[in-house]
Structures are given as structure tokens and as C-alpha cells.
Design goal:
The chain has eight helices and no strands.
Length: about 210
């Protein structure tokens, strides 16, 4: 179980620091002249809806995982790490050769009412879940309902805290985060982590 927790923590941190999850929120907050309180509320709402759709799809993936375990338990323990490795390699390969990667989650909107901006951001985030995180729900399914709940809570709590923290620091002018590298290589990094988690799962299964 601890390896599942470490894996989901790692993916959550990488997911949270992807620049397009939080830099546009800083830009919007500054251009709209929102207070820190208003900005943090907007960040919480938009990030929560993004995570909600990611977790909901993850639960469907986990449910499919439970069904697969019932029918193909032996194959499942080999298939799940394989899926992580294959998906990780796909992310790495598709991101190579792209000069500039854009993680399109939030677009800076024109000046509109605060409510309209927050609703449009929340909707945009809800409709763009992070597929990179979904594959890990298959791994969680191997640990039963307890594993799925643990991964969901970690995704929600860790990602929310980090995104809100980064926006707060950015608004205070403390955060001088260099985003270009992460923006270009976020999929490569996530892919590499998925491959490593898949290999790690193979090793731990082998020892069992």
C-alpha cells in the first residue's frame, strides 16, 4: 500500500506544478484586481472542479479494474503495470519533438464579471481532466476500495494545496517559478514517472 501512496503523491505533485494549472489564475487575478481572498476562492473552485472530473473518471477506471480482477486476477497483476509503462512511454514519445507543449486547461478570459469568469474557468477545468492520472487508478484497484479511496484523497488534497499555495505565492510576488521547462516537458516527466511506477509495481508483485 505504501508504494501506491508514494506513487500517487509523486503524480499529484507533478500534476499540481504544471504551469497552466495556476499561472493563468495569477494573471486573471491581477488583471481583474481581485483581492487575495477572491483569488484564493477562485483558485479553490476551479482546481476542485478539475480534480473532481479527474477523480470521477478515475473511479470509473477503478471500477473497470475491479471487474477485470474478478475475471482475470492473474493477468491483471501483470497487465496493470504494463498499462502504466505503455502509457508512460506514449506520453514521453508524443512529447518528444514538440518544441512547445501547451497544457490547455485555462485560458485567460477577457474582462467579464467575476462570477462569469469563475464559472467559465471551473467548467473548462471540469471538462479537461488529466488523463495522465487516470491510469494509476488501475493500479489502485489492485489494492481494493481502500487503495482507490487513498489515491482519490491524495490527488484532491495534495493538488489543491499545492495549486493554491503557488497562486498565493505568485500573487504575493514571492513565487518566481521558472515555468518554461515544466511547460515544455510536463508530459515527458509524467510519462517517465508512470514508466518508473509501472516497473516498480512489477518488482513488488514479483516479490509477493
Amino acid at each position: 500500500m505504501w508504494q501506491l501512496i508514494i506513487g500517487s503523491l509523486t503524480l499529484s505533485i507533478i500534476h499540481a506544478v504544471i504551469p497552466n494549472h495556476w499561472i493563468p489564475l495569477i494573471a486573471i487575478s491581477k488583471s481583474e484586481k481581485w483581492s487575495i481572498k477572491e483569488s484564493m476562492l477562485a483558485t479553490f473552485i476551479t482546481a476542485f472542479f478539475h480534480l473532481l472530473s479527474t477523480v470521477l473518471i478515475g473511479l470509473l477506471v477503478a471500477y473497470a479494474g475491479f471487474k477485470l480482477i474478478e475475471s482475470f486476477e492473474e493477468i491483471f497483476h501483470v497487465a496493470t503495470p504494463s498499462v502504466l509503462i505503455i502509457l508512460g512511454l506514449i506520453f514521453v514519445l508524443t512529447s518528444l519533438g514538440k518544441k512547445k507543449h501547451r497544457h490547455h486547461h485555462i485560458d485567460v478570459k477577457n474582462k467579464r464579471s467575476k462570477t462569469a469568469i469563475i464559472i467559465s474557468l471551473a467548467l473548462g477545468m471540469f471538462l479537461s481532466p488529466c488523463i495522465e492520472l487516470e491510469a494509476y487508478y488501475l493500479q489502485a484497484a489492485a489494492f481494493g476500495l481502500e487503495g482507490v479511496i487513498a489515491v482519490s484523497i491524495i490527488y484532491l488534497v495534495v493538488t489543491l494545496i499545492i495549486i493554491m499555495g503557488l497562486v498565493y505565492l505568485g500573487l504575493k510576488g514571492i513565487n518566481k517559478f521558472k515555468s518554461d521547462f515544466l511547460e515544455r516537458h510536463s508530459k515527458t516527466i509524467t510519462g517517465a514517472v508512470l514508466v518508473l511506477l509501472g516497473l516498480f509495481a512489477f518488482l513488488t508483485e514479483h516479490h509477493h
